[in-house]
Structure formats: structure tokens, C-alpha cells
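Quick start: what a row looks like.
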Amino acid sequence: MYRSLVFSLLALSTLTLLGIVGTIAWQDYQRHGYLEAGRAFGAAWGRFAEIPASVARLFQSDVLTPTPVALTADNPAAPAELTWQGAPSLSSGDTEELQLQRRFMLGLINADRDRYSLAPLALGDNPAAQWHAEDMMRHNYRSHWGTDGLTPYMRYTLAGGFNRELQNVSGPDMLTGATEGGRELPGELLARTQKGFMSSPEHRANILDRWHRKVNLGIACAAFTCWVVQQFEGDHLRFSDQPGISGGMLRFVGELEDGLELDGVAVWYHRLPQPLTLGQLDATYSYGSGQYPATFLRPPLTDRRYYPDSISNYGWKAGIDPYNLDPTLARIDAPPLRVDVAQTRAVPWTTAARWEAVGSSFRVEADLTPILESSGPGVYTVQIWVKVGEERGVVTNYSVWVR
């Protein structure tokens, strides 16, 4: 009798696991057009492993939580000891509790940078990271993109940012049950989040990027689950006239940090933002600078010289664009499938009407009328490239709306 019962339970468990595998594989196929069996089994096993705990919670009359240790602004604890009183709720402002969480996360980031002899980061004041963390918590999703269709650099620009930004995001692995169960307090969750970032090559590269000077931290916690946004930014230029497009003319004026030299300008295009569904957001893994580079700028030539080419073939890799996905896609609570697709495009050059780079100061004006007529209304993001010695880098991703 017992043997028969054990066999029945094993058979039922196997069928349940295979059913979960099939569901995840089919959702992946809807999104990406192909199957990846290893990922489906891995994600399914994580979901399957949650079943016993979920069943057990049905029979618990009371869920016990660890007794938290109070943390005060005058007595910040070491990372391993850090906890907070109670479970933080959606923040409506820069509360003392949120400030403590940010200080703690900043300490984790700088401790990791210190291990590689990198300068510590200052805490930034751009609110875009907090907007996004709270939006992810409110709608229970995890993506670089927002429900409003904005990318990180668009949010950053709208919130007053003008430097180059790069973003890490983190949230619960199992989104459908993200606000239930769990025993870890926010301090423990933030420490585990940072450890997870450092174990991922892409997130780790953002944390250890030597061009960064600041980090804007968005943290939203509920029911022992935290959504975290680390939005890094540089601090290598100042605009006296921020990029803008009027009458087809792009203009911007500013000053670079000493030692940097203006090296190039690219303008990327993305269609005007529109709301995205949770199914679309669940499928996204990363974000880029836009859907494609609309044009590259170059200085005017004198003395009867001319440029031999007006178009360059440019290649880059891009993740899944949620705008290209079916809005009716069902949600999936497994981490999104990583897909990097090689892209190529014939990008036109635009010769600037004015290109002044004297010392650290710069002024650029360029007629983008043909580019605007070709691409149409959208978000045009200006990238300014600089060089120092043999090294090149981007110092701004500034988005301009053209309707």
C-alpha cells in the first residue's frame, strides 16, 4: 500500500513538473520564436520547489518573523547585522527609513569598488531610480523598461539628469508570489541583491565602471520583498545650453571636465513611448541607447577638403524590444530569456553647421531636418563621445522629444 502511494506521488510530481516545463517553454516560444529546454527545466524546477512551502503556509495559523534589530541614523550596523523595524511600505517621499536603506546599499557598492581600488561613488539625487522601483513594486514586475514605456535614460533625462547613465535592476525571482511568504528583512535582501549583481558580468561591470561618479538608488520593499534600482551616472560635463531640437536644428553648448576632448556625437532614435503590458515587460532582459542610431555628427571641413563617405555601416547588439512583442502575451514569473540580436544599419553622417571645441568648451549645431523626415516623431537621444589619451567613453545620453 505504501509503495503504491509513493509511486502515485512520484508520478503526480513528475507530471506537475513536466506541465510547468511545458508552460514555460511555450511562453518562451511565443516571445522569442524558439525553445531552450535547459532554461525551461531550470525555471520550472525553481517554481516546483516552491510548492511544498506554499502548501505548508496554508496550514500555518501564524507566520513568525524574526525580531528585527533597530537601526538608527547615528548607529549604522555592519552589513551582516543590518535590519529594520517592520516591513517598509511604498514610499511617498524620502523617508528616514529609505535614506537608511540607500546608505546601506551605497556602502555595499563602495565596498565592492574598494576591493578593485576604484574610487567610491557619491549618492545621487536624481529621482528616476525611485520612480522605477516603486512602479515595479506597484505593478509587481521586474524590467529596465517601465509600464509607461520609458527606458532608463528617458526617465533619467525627464528627472533632470544630463550625464551618461547605466542601470541595474533587481526584484523577486518568482513574481507571481513576490508579495507572499519570505522571512528575510530588507537589510538582508539588499545585501543579497548586491551579491547577485556582483555575480552577474553585466551588472558587475556597471558597479565597477571607473567612469561612474554617482549612483541614484531606488528601493521599494513590501512583505519582505525588495525591488532595487541602481542608476549609475558620470559627472564629466556641464551644459550651459542643454541639447534641444528646434526648427530641425540640434544645438547644445557646454564644458567638459579637464583632460577630456570632444571626440564625436551620435543621435539615437526610439519611437515615442507608449504604455507596455506586464507580459511585454516580463520578456525584456536589457535596454540599449535606442532602436537604432539615426545619425552620426562630424565637424565641417575647410580648405576644399571633403568627406569621401556620407553613410557608415554600423553594427551593434540589442536585446528584445518590448514594443515588438504582442501586448496580449501572458505573464511569466521566471527570469526573462536573455536574447542579444546582432543588428546592422546604414547610418547617415550629418556634417555639423557649427562645431567648436576649444579647450574644455564645446558648441555644436547641426541641421537634422533630413533625419527627422526619415525617422519621424520620436525620442532622439544625444550621445557625446570623448577621449582621454587612447581611451574613449560616452559622457551623456540626453533624450529630446520630437512630436
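That is the whole record. The CA atoms of residues 314 and 345 lie 5 Å apart. The two ends are 73 Å apart (CA to CA).
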